[in-house]
Amino acid sequence: MADATHHTLRRAAARRPRVWCCSFAGVPPSPEHRALPAPAAGGVHKLPPKSPLAPSFQSSPSSKLAGLIDPRRILSPGRVSPIDAEGSPAVGAAAAAEEEAPREQAAALAPFVAVREEEEEGRGLDLRLCLRGRDGRCVAMELDSSVLCESSAFFADMVPDASGGGGGGKRIEVDGVENLEAFKEAVELMFEPDAMRWLARAGVSRAIGVLEVSSSIMFERGIESCLKYVEAVPWSENEEEKLKNVFARCTFDEEISKDVLARLQPQCRSSSDDLTVQLIKSVTCGTNNGARKDMQSLVSGLLSKSSVYQKDLSGLNKGSFYQICRSCLSSLVELFVEGSEPVEHSKQAMIVSNSRPVVERISKQTDNLNWLFDILVNNDMAEEFVELWGKQEELIRMHEQASPMFRYELSRVSASVFIALGKGRIQCPSDSRSQLFYGWFRPMLMDFGWLQRCSKGLDVRVLEENLGQALLTLPLQQQQSLFEEWFRCFASRGTECPNLSRAFQVWWRRSFVRSSVEVRR
């Protein structure tokens, strides 16, 4: 009864697909393992049918051990093979050893063997497919030749007598496989009834590998399924690059690949210049301060030279940048005009226009200018900004008459320019530097106290140091007039004025100490 149940279970299991992988190593020479002649080409060894155990075995002294281990499974160490016994256990073991010796010789040449068997009603595994990779690994698969030929035109031409039906003993070898695992999975996909579910379990990276193999073996259903799956799921940047390489090497039907190509390549190509201008205008016109700060950081990172994204720096059009800068400067002039009007008139204008206070709008425009200036400095295009800011005569004139509550915002822009000049990040002509100092040095002295109290991220110590360094780049005669003005301001206002003592000492030594030494000589 137990034997009958045992064979019933084995027949039920035979109808289900079985997959296993075995690692074989070479068997050392031994008198017990004598090599037998290799089978004829195209031949396939058939295992004998399993028979019930002989009654004499149950009555042997080792019957207790037989209840735990089938004697047909007792093999030498390191060997795995389903060996059946015919008649007595001793005869079955000897026959199995002789049958296994040629298989071990073949396995010694292939360090890794993966076998996939699949049986369905009315179909048999009549073809052995051997895939050998460039690294020497080998995969052997027992397959149904009719399914393989129906799925792939490549294999349909290779299988002998493919149109003749299921004749036994057919064998195909494919050498030099670059991606052995992907090739094996592409073949497995031919026998999967639900390809999309299999790909979903495999993931994008493996699906891209299967896509490339499917293209090489002309497996149309695999190509269509892989493209459909890849188009519907997100990709990482590495997977995107891998997919681009596949499309560069393979040719796919436009009808089934257009959706993937739409994600890989823009359909209507717009210049990076136009897109950059649109992004910057959107940021400068934004009304939410928190979101505007986030967008400024994002755009600055994309346009930075140190950005991880590959980009064409020539797409940063200098003319478009300065056009936006001029627009912000025009807005500043209008806001200062509005801020200089009587209080009652300003309140009525705010009610009518339903706008924010003038101080907040001025702060927004100066913040935009500082952000644009940073982008120009990082991309070595800020020389013209020094000249542009030095020529703002109308703003300089209105600065003297405006309220200190918002006029110091202009000095925040001047501070950024002075710091960049002091650090040597901008190389502009002497005339531009002189014009900048004659226009904005006095407002800086007046607003320094407000900049200390409302720094908004500005380091006033860095400002003091680099303001003095920038001043020392002027001709000595111009330095003298500016240092004299600073000396008078500092003597009367103290810490409300920047401390340029170090730069003043340098100018004094250059102007008088060294010159007196030269006169004595």
Please give the share of residues in helix: 55-70%
Task: Give me the secondary-structure category.
Answer: mainly alpha
The whole-number mean of residue pLDDT values reads: 76
* Strand content bin: 5-15%
General shape: elongated
Distance between the termini: 126 Å
User: How large is the count of helical segments?
Assistant: 24
Which blocks of ≥5 consecutive residues have pLDDT under 50? Answer: 1-122, 162-167, 348-353
Q: Major β-sheet, in short? A: 3 strands, mixed
Extended strand count: 5
Task: State the strand order across the main sheet.
Answer: 4-3-5
Radius of gyration: 42 Å
What is the string of SSEs from the N terminus onward? HEHHHEEEHHEHHHHHHHHHHHHHHHHHH
Task: Explain what you see.
This protein has 521 residues and is mostly helical. The chain is 61% helix and 6% strand. The strands form 2 sheets. A 3-stranded mixed sheet has the order 4-3-5. A two-stranded antiparallel ribbon has the order 1-2. It is elongated and about 105 Å long. The model is unreliable at 1-122, 162-167 and 348-353 (pLDDT under 50).
Short description:
This protein is mainly alpha-helical and 521 residues long.
Strand-helix topology:
Layout: H1 2-14, E1 18-23, H2 55-58, H3 63-66, H4 89-109, E2 112-117, E3 127-133, E4 138-143, H5 145-151, H6 153-158, E5 170-177, H7 180-190, H8 195-202, H9 204-216, H10 220-232, H11 237-249, H12 254-264, H13 272-284, H14 289-303, H15 318-339, H16 343-353, H17 358-378, H18 383-390, H19 393-401, H20 404-422, H21 430-453, H22 460-471, H23 476-493, H24 501-520
Parallel strand pairs: 3-5
Antiparallel strand pairs: 1-2, 3-4
Helix pairs in contact: 7-9, 8-10, 9-10, 9-11, 10-12, 13-14, 13-15, 14-17, 15-17, 15-19, 17-20, 18-21, 20-21, 20-22, 21-23, 22-24, 23-24
